[in-house]
UniProtKB/TrEMBL annotation:
GO terms for molecular function: aspartate kinase activity; ATP binding. Tetramer consisting of 2 isoforms Alpha (catalytic and regulation) and of a homodimer of 2 isoforms Beta (regulation). GO terms for cellular component: cytosol. It comes from Peribacillus simplex. This is Aspartokinase.
Length: 410
């Protein structure tokens, strides 16, 4: 007998019919003699609709009340799925995140899980019940309701799998696995049989929405193999594990992209030793996430500094900079919005110094201007014009032969 955690995302539970389908997939695992814990998201676009209702009331809704509102979405799904299981003659029980023992930081909207007291889930499994848990939610030490950030149900599932020492964690979604790039945008995208935790973590952090980055982090830390697969089709999915099988010495495994990026440039910073740290400490204290950073000296012995942010954070970043202008000692700030980040990821890059050069060549040949660059051992990210994002991904996908068989090392 194995202990299995199954997670079903929003589209997979988008209607009552789909919830019945999910119940059947759960029952199959139970019928195979397994103990099953199921984690579900809110139905279809429920979370988006709740966000939009809140915005119709306030431009800056209270973060506490947002969490109170958004967690209702998952609560609808757990009860309906549990009813469907009971209707089919199975013993099942639903739990909200706090009932399931998900203890988080005291942060609204993007809390990290601190601990899981899985005793209640365990007791129900002992009673031979299927346990259905609401994803994306928990509570802090004061009993306040918190959420884990958009897409956070994946993290609930993996964290529960870790806490229960589960044998498997299967993430059911609306695609048949992890692809070389988002199959909704790029027709030639190909499903991967396997991918390493590190590569998946980079892709997820760089915009591949198929998995919540913290879910991959958890899976790596606790060495839980994940399978991403379809809730509708029967075919096997993509395994995320420590060492993915190298497909013919693959250099680039996948391409991630993200729109709504803004470049902020600060002109005329004094060239003192501490000026960089002061700027970024000030931004960090105000919880502004900064991504790619480029520094350049000027002839006047001052420094110009550019960084990229998500466009939604730009206004807050500008306010922070303006409020601290005197202390930071810069001349002026300019922004360029309407940008996107396109990144190639693959563990084969570590030993292949020419990959970034090849990426830039492809961009140049396609007539795409690269505005910012950042690299790590297993990724190269570029910032380009948002209008050219899909074209950039298509060209790179083709050039690195990701659609057919992988590019072979020279
Ligand atoms: P769920 O509601 O099941 O959590 P999500 O919408 O969060 O589903 O994630 C699935 C979506 O992720 C797919 O529909 C696809 O558009 C997107 N996606 C982005 N990058 C990739 C990729 N590399 N492989 C597969 N899907 C991807
Ligand atoms: N319902 C939440 C969201 O839409 C969490 C999730 O789906 O994972 O972001
Ligand atoms: Mg998701």
């Amino acid at each position: 007998m194995a202990l299995i955690v199954q997670k079903f995302g929003g589209t997979s539970v988008g209607s009552v019919e789909k919830i019945k389908n999910v119940a059947n997939r759960v029952i199959e695992e139970a019928e195979n003699g397994n103990e099953v814990v199921v984690v579900v998201s809110a139905m279809g676009k429920t979370t988006d609709q709740l966000v939009s209702m809140a915005r119709d009331i306030s431009g800056t809704p209270s973060k506490r009340e947002m969490d109170m509102l958004l967690t209702t979405g998952e609560q609808i799904t757990i009860s309906l799925l549990t009813m469907a299981l009971i209707e089919e003659g199975y013993e099942a029980i639903s739990y909200t995140g706090w009932q399931a023992g998900m203890q988080t930081e005291s942060v609204h909207g993007n809390a990290r899980i601190l601990n899981i007291d899985a005793s209640r889930i365990q007791a129900q499994l002992q009673e031979k019940k299927i346990v259905v848990v609401a994803g994306f939610q928990g509570s802090d030490a004061n009993g306040e309701i918190t959420t884990l950030g958009r897409g956070g149900s994946d993290t609930t599932a993996v964290a529960i799998a870790a806490a229960l020492n589960a044998d498997r964690c299967d993430i059911y979604t609306d695609v048949t696995g992890v692809f070389t790039t988002d199959p909704r945008y790029i027709k030639g995208a190909r499903k991967l049989q396997s991918i390493s935790y590190d590569e998946m973590l980079e892709l997820a952090n760089l915009g591949a929405g198929v998995l919540h980055p913290r879910a991959v982090e958890y899976a790596k830390n606790y060495q839980i193999p994940l399978e991403v697969r379809s809730s509708m089709e029967r075919e096997s999915g993509t395994i995320i594990e420590e060492e993915a099988t190298m497909e013919e010495n693959l250099i680039v495994r996948g391409i991630a992209f993200e729109d709504s990026i803004t470049r902020v440039t600060i002109y005329g910073l004094p060239q003192s030793l501490g000026s960089l740290s002061t700027i970024f400490t000030t931004l960090a204290k105000n919880r502004i996430n900064v991504d790619i950073i480029i520094q350049s000296m000027t002839a006047e012995d001052t420094t110009n500094l550019s960084f990229s942010t998500k466009s939604e954070d730009t206004e807050a970043a500008l306010i922070v900079l303006e409020n601290n202008k005197e202390q930071l000692g810069f001349d002026r700030v300019e922004t360029e919005s309407g940008l996107a980040k396109v990144s190639i990821v693959g563990s084969g890059m570590v030993s292949n110094p020419g990959v970034a050069a090849e990426m830039f060549e492809v961009m140049a040949n396609t007539g795409i201007q690269v505005k910012m660059v950042s690299t790590s051992e297993i990724k190269v990210s570029t910032v380009v014009n948002e209008k050219e994002m899909v074209k950039a991904v298509e060209s790179l996908h083709e050039a690195f032969k990701l659609g057919q068989h992988a590019k072979v090392l020279a």
